[in-house]
Structure formats: structure tokens, C-alpha cells
Amino acid sequence: MIPEFEDLEPKEADLMYTLPIYVAILIAGADGKIDKSEMNKAINLANLKTKKARKELIEYYKVVNTDYEDKLKMALANLPNDHKEREKILIEKLQEVNDIWPKIDKSFAIKLYASLKDVAKKIAEASGGVFGYMSVGYEESKLIDLKMINDPAK
Question: What is the pLDDT of residue 131?
């Protein structure tokens, strides 16, 4: 466990480590289908962030990246196939972080929040938008800002 999560309950720490997976599935499935390019982008991002994330997040992403592809597939298998039901559950899960932000270092929380938004944007761009003309599709654009998560800087 990373030092920033030592004071969290195990369930809270698990949620914090699962956030990038929930964000990936939420954005990838926003249009009703999760395509291979979006899943590959999520897997590649998790790996990349172990080396290229903000310095304070490297250890976090090393934990997240452990068996990431398996965790992603397992999370997806445990969620409803109906994209509206899946979206509702994921939004509720992501909202739970709002109660955890005050329990962790504010600077770390701000950086993690920015990183999650970056993950959302890059996954949304992975499928190329409408007819390849827009980089982000309409459905993804409604969720990409992760408005269900409060900005820990405020």
C-alpha cells in the first residue's frame, strides 16, 4: 500500500486503486459499446503511467498496473451489460471518492484527480469520435470531465 492510503479503510484503499479501471470502463462504454481500441488504450495507459505519471503518482500506478488487464476484464464481467445500468453503477462508485478525498493528502488528491481526467480524455479519444472527424464522441464528451467526482482542489 502506498503511504497516502495508510489511514484508509481497506475498502476505501481498494476503491482508490480501482478508480482508473472504473473511469476506463465508464468512458469506453459511454456510447453503448466497448471497443477493443478503448480497452487497449486503457491497458497501455496503465502501463505508461507507471513511468510517465507525475512523480508523486508513480508508486500509485505501479500498484494499479499490477494485473491491470485481468482486473479490467473482471470489473467489466461483474458489471451489467446494459450500458445505462453499467454507467449508473460506475458513477455511483466514482462518487464514493468524494468522501475519501478529505482523508488523503490534498496535493496527492489533486494530482490523482487530474490524472484520472487525463485517463478519461485519452480513452475517449481512442475510438476516434463520429466518423473519425471528432476526437471525442458525443456520449464520451458528456462524461469526460468526471463531474461526478468533486475537484479536491476546491
Answer: 47
Which residue range forms the structural domain that includes residue 77? Answer: 9-143
CA distance 46 to 58: 11
Within-domain flag for 1: no
State the pLDDT at residue 133: 42
Sequence-distant contacts of 145-151: CB under 8 A, at least 24 apart: 145/117, 145/120, 146/23, 146/94, 146/113, 146/116, 146/117, 146/120, 148/91, 148/94, 148/95, 149/94, 149/95, 149/97, 149/98, 149/113, 149/116, 150/98, 150/101, 151/110, 151/113
Does 25 reside within a domain?
yes
